[in-house]
Amino acid sequence: MSGRLDLQTGQAEKYTYAVLGAGRQGTAAAYDMAKFGQASKVTIGDVDLRQARRAASHVNRLIGRRVAEGTRVDVRRPAQIKRFLTGVDAFLSAVPYYYNLEIAKAAIAARANMCDLGGHTGIVRKQLLLDRRATNAGISIIPDCGLGPGMGATIACYGMEMLDSSDEVYIWEGGLPQNPRPPFNYLLTFNFEGLINEYSGKAVFLRGGEIIEVPCIEELEVIDFPSLGKLEAFTTSGGTSTCPWTFKGKLKVFQNKTLRYPGSYAQLKTMRDLGLFSEREIKVGGAKVAPRRVLQALYEPHVKLPGEKDVVALCVKCVGRKDDRPAEVILEMLDYYDDETQFSAMERTTGWSASIVAIMMAQGETPRGAKPLETAVPGHLFVKELEQRGIKLTKKANWPKS
Question: I need a labelling partner for 138 at 20 to 30 A (CA). Which of 25, 128, 267, 367 fits?
């Protein structure tokens, strides 16, 4: 534990953090840990050493002191992960979701608090089965801590805190370009595989008090969002994470939909119906090819646009009772690309959300064990941290009149 003071916050630097994955969201999280986490050190690990060092240099430039360092670590090698995590108070896994179960086991071995960006509910539920082992190790493991899954559920918990009782929760969220370009009017601000996984499989919702599955890219509705105009909303997978199981028996409805500009629904539904999201190889002219790889080659150049600025939109509606009368709370957020730090809105809302959880874990503010985000992080504390970072919520409450 260091006795130095952070000149920006005036607080003692005493926590050691780490980030696995030196990509966009991982770098944003490392910056947030360094700025807000009373950090004595933030280590960024990646299989690409140069990328890790570039990310650390970017953090150090923004913070104005040498607090971050980059190192090479291969998450496919448990022994390397354990060495990397030894002595770390809390860390974020910002690598693809399919590594997170083994990383969680390494976190237990190293006794390092862990959160991740998740994205696959099946793997998250396996991580939660490590609860007793994590408790015995004296650490917290909290999966699915990004934007969606992640922030949307935590803000929904905040909305439910504002009511005496809740019956229904609806979440709409999405990352969009500030200046949409035809034909797809979309900006890819994270991994292509993560995007296509959202469009594949089925969404898991709570409806009528029961857990149900709904196909992706269905149930189109139009949402009028302040300053963005009319947006399409439709089903995608993974956004509710473990919430349907957590709130079964407590809520009648818990669901989320993804926001896109008009026209996106028809385009994506056509891609889905053609089988372009599939990873199963087909024969074309004597060669074997996975349709998803063809889609990536054709689609990505239209939506991966360096220099374009983005916006993240989020709306949560909680319906229930206040003072024994019907009531509802609507919480809205718009976050934009930040010119000062050059972090995109997606990086801010994803990486910073996860960093807030990591900081809470390091400071002992989360329960020990492997816990779902919606039970481990109080909504009001999370919102307070968001607002400290300049991410504001608009709150509209339809309260009963006395």
Answer: 25
